[in-house]
Specification:
Elements (H helix, E strand, L loop, with lengths): L17 H29 L14 E6 L5 E8 L10 E5 L5 E7 L6 H4 L1 E4 L12 E5 L8 E5 L4 E6 L2
Antiparallel strand pairs: 1-2, 2-6, 3-4, 3-7, 5-6, 7-8
Length: 163
């Protein structure tokens, strides 16, 4: 006959001591903090840092100078938003007091310098308003202290004093 194996009886595990319980709670708290920090980094690393604000303002950059003989203000366009037409982009000239000296006139209509005191000259004739286009404005009709405004029906692209 084969003897029966000895039964190994061990006492039931003792409940964790308060020191072990404290250690377990601390480890769990640290683990949760690490997981939350990782989640925070993951979410905000793909989140856009700035909120898109829509299209950039549409403006025309203008270099204003006086002609060498002093008879004209020369406005040279240094930056232009795409898609501006000389038929809808207008020049207005205002007196120093704000009264209208030259009503809003499409650039394409500024070809009679002797009567209007202003002439639009395109860098590339027949195209849209572009960098390099110029406006010549008579200093005799529109002296220093007057102002100009380039606009369409809804937007002012550039404005400033003639000086």
């Amino acid at each position: 006959m084969i003897p029966a194996p000895y039964a190994v009886l061990s006492p039931p595990p003792s409940p964790p001591s308060s020191e072990n319980l404290t250690l377990i709670v601390v480890v769990l708290a640290i683990a949760m903090a690490v997981v939350l920090a990782g989640l925070f980094v993951a979410v905000f690393s793909v989140w856009p840092l700035s909120v898109p604000t829509g299209p950039a303002p549409r403006s025309i950059g203008v270099n204003l100078a006086r002609s060498s003989d002093g008879t004209n203000w020369v406005l040279t366009f240094t930056s232009v938003p795409t898609g501006l037409s000389p038929f809808t982009t207008m020049l207005t000239v205002l007196t120093g007091g704000g009264a209208t000296a030259l009503p809003a006139t499409p650039l394409s209509s500024l070809y009679n310098y002797s009567s209007q005191g202003a002439l639009y000259s395109q860098f590339q004739p027949g195209g849209p308003v572009a960098v390099g286009d110029r406006l010549l404005i008579s200093t005799a009709i529109y002296p220093a202290g007057y102002g100009y405004r380039l606009s369409d029906a809804t937007t002012t692209f550039a404005s400033g004093p003639l000086q």
